[in-house]
Write a structure and sequence with these properties.
By secondary structure, this protein is of the alpha/beta class. Helix content is about 65%, strand content about 10%.
Length: about 625
């Protein structure tokens, strides 16, 4: 290719590259101006809250950690100053006719050795304080976050936006706060070095300070931009992450594996998991590639600035304005100034990125309780309460569809009420309102004449036992699984055994190798996996153990075969005696003996009566459902 064309081509390529870099830089700057300040404010707020939290949880180690960082920041300047004096002293000694080493040199060397010893001891103290500081903080933070999850209102779990935040917190609370705090505290070191370098170099030559700051500014903007982008990717891809974890749960859950094999779903799920993970990572890779490109370009700028600084200091030596020792001191100080700025930029970008996650964690910890417990307690002598729904109107938060509209229902003490109907008719919602997982929009729920909102929830829950379709089954031993029906009476082994006998669980528990001490999870040595029927009977024993006057049964036999369902039904009849009982069921054979059957349709009671009464209603909803189940239709 002719030389002229090569030069023209090179010129065009150069200009196109510069234009692209300039445009990208403008875009990055514009992005930060438009959206960065709000997130920067969040980072500062996260810093304030976390430092306050850490100090509160472990004040002694926090102060020790802080002091050791300050000492570590200042020691290098003492060493640089000693070295500059040593250089001048060596030159003086070399220029003199004497071959003896001056006493001053020995003192300087001792000072340098002493500084190194102090630094080593300080580093040890710093590491000790950091480790023990985070022992305290990690324990307390884990306790606070876990407790918040445990006591969080049901509404947060059923709201998609809140759920995304919960997933972010769950994924990040065990590492991000520590990373954020470490970056935040070690940001203090370069800030101190920056202040020290500025005080030295401004006295010597302010132009050097200006050059260093101008060369560091673009890097700061770039790092902030891509730190924010990293968080933005997580935020935008929250639904992808949720899909990923739910899909992954099927291939890591032993109860799912048999079905996955039979339906040959494993490959589909594995491919989906990889695709979701890759989709999330691709955007992260793109952001990191751009960050690396800009950093490489800016390193060329830094090298040019460093050359100018060296030239300025050499000129001062040649003009005899400073000694050779001071040349070394000022040059090293200039390097430390630039290094401090670079570290500030790097660490601040990490602080910025992690700070947005930490902000979310403390936002989560500050979630307000929407269901506030009342103070009224039910009478200790109360056996079975009357329950009334009075003109109850309710729709789920953020939804427009009314589930109940001026709904009324009275349940007399000891009444057994079955609730049937199609999915979405309001059966489960009724129980959620009775348990005050949600508050009614209008109307009242009265427990023995007392507004449910005024009742102390712990006191109300002490009067209720539940057996849900998807009940909790703990990885503990059989005794504990039953005893958790009333954790205040875990010690009462005789009551545990009696409850197991009533539910029909005692005989098979006695056949376990370790009987009531048998661990019911194969993840632990010697653990076993009980059958579905055994699990149900142990969960039923838990309800017997609580011995509460109100009983809620949600699809209690839906997962069982006919024989097991019949055995459970017989045990349930024993449990229901002398209790107000709500039974939610699709299998109508379990509700035939109920005192009252309510047929729900679109949040209203379409039909009510006993089993026999409902079968007499021509073209009735209940009659239609019953005939479908027994095969008449």
């Amino acid at each position: 290719m002719p030389r002229g064309l090569r030069e023209i081509g090179g010129f065009l390529l150069y200009n196109l590259t510069v234009m692209r870099i300039t445009e990208a830089f403008k875009k990055a700057l514009r992005y930060n101006i438009n959206g960065g300040f709000t997130k920067l404010k969040k980072t500062f707020e996260a810093s304030r809250v976390l430092i306050t939290y850490v100090y509160k949880k472990s004040p002694l180690y926090f102060i020790g950690y802080l002091v050791t960082i300050i000492i570590d920041s200042l020691i290098p300047y003492a060493v640089l100053w000693l070295i500059s004096i040593l250089i001048d002293e060596l030159i003086t000694n070399y220029s003199s006719a004497s071959t003896l080493i001056s006493t001053k040199i020995y003192y300087i060397i001792l000072g340098i050795i002493g500084s190194a010893l102090i630094k080593n001891l300080n580093d040890t103290a710093n590491n000790f304080c950091e480790v023990y500081l985070w022992f305290d903080v990690a324990r307390e933070l884990d306790k606070d976050v876990t407790r918040k999850f445990a006591y969080l209102d049901t509404e947060y779990y059923e709201n998609p936006e809140a759920r995304d935040l919960l997933n972010k917190v769950s994924d990040n609370y065990d590492q991000r706060p520590q990373q954020f705090f470490s970056y935040l505290m070690w940001l203090l070191q370069p800030i101190i070095e920056l202040a020290a370098s500025l005080s030295i170099l401004l006295f010597f030559n302010p132009i050097i300070v200006l050059l260093v700051f101008l060369s560091a500014l673009p890097e700061l903007i770039v790092q902030l931009n891509y730190g924010e982008r990293s968080y933005g990717i997580w935020d935008a891809k929250a639904s992808v992450k949720r899909d990923y974890y739910l899909s992954k749960g099927f291939v890591t859950n032993e109860t799912s594996l048999m079905e996955l094999r039979v339906f040959n779903v494993r490959n589909y799920l594995l491919e989906r998991i990889v695709k979701l993970f890759t989709e999330f990572q691709d955007q992260q890779k793109e952001a990191e590639n751009k960050r690396s490109l800009f950093s490489a370009i800016l390193s060329v700028v830094r090298a040019g600035v460093y050359g100018i600084i060296v030239f300025l200091i050499i000129t001062a030596v040649l003009l005899k304005n400073i000694t050779v020792g001071l040349f070394s001191f000022y040059l090293s100080t200039s390097e430390r100034l630039y290094e401090a700025l670079s570290v500030i930029v790097e660490r601040f970008s990490k602080v910025y990125e992690n700070g947005l996650f930490v902000y979310d964690i403390f936002k989560f910890l500050n979630f307000k309780e929407k269901i506030v417990s009342g103070s009224v307690v039910l009478r200790e002598t109360l056996t079975i309460p009357q329950i009334k729904f009075v003109d109850v109107t309710f729709k789920y938060p953020g939804k427009d569809v009314l589930i109940f509209d001026k709904f009324n229902l009275t349940i007399e003490p000891g009444e057994h009420v079955a609730i049937v109907g199609e999915n979405g008719a309001g059966k489960t919602t009724l129980i959620k309102l009775l348990m005050r997982f949600y508050d009614v929009d209008s109307g009242k729920i009265l427990i023995d004449g007392i507004d449910l909102k005024k009742l102390n929830l712990e006191n109300w829950y002490s009067k209720v036992a539940v057996l849900f379709q998807e009940f909790n089954f703990y990885h503990y031993d059989a005794r504990t699984n039953i005893g958790l029906g009333d954790s205040n009476r875990l010690w009462d082994f005789n009551r545990v055994v009696e409850s197991a006998k009533k539910s029909g669980a005692h005989d098979f528990i006695e056949n376990y190798k370790y009987k009531y001490k048998q661990v019911l999870n194969t993840s632990f040595r010697g653990g076993i996996a009980p059958s579905t029927g055994q699990k149900q009977k142990i969960a039923l024993a838990r309800a017997f153990f609580k011995d509460a006057p109100v009983l809620i049964l949600d699809e209690p036999t839906s997962a069982l075969d006919a024989v097991s369902a019949q055995l459970i039904t017989e045990s349930l009849e024993t449990l229901m005696k002398g209790r107000t009982t709500f039974i939610i069921a699709h299998r109508l054979s379990t509700v035939r003996k109920a005192n009252l059957i309510l047929v729900f349709e679109a949040g209203k009671i379409a039909e009510q009566g006993t089993h026999d009464e409902l079968l007499q209603i021509p073209n009735g909803v209940y009659k239609h459902l019953y005939e479908l189940q027994i095969g008449l239709k």
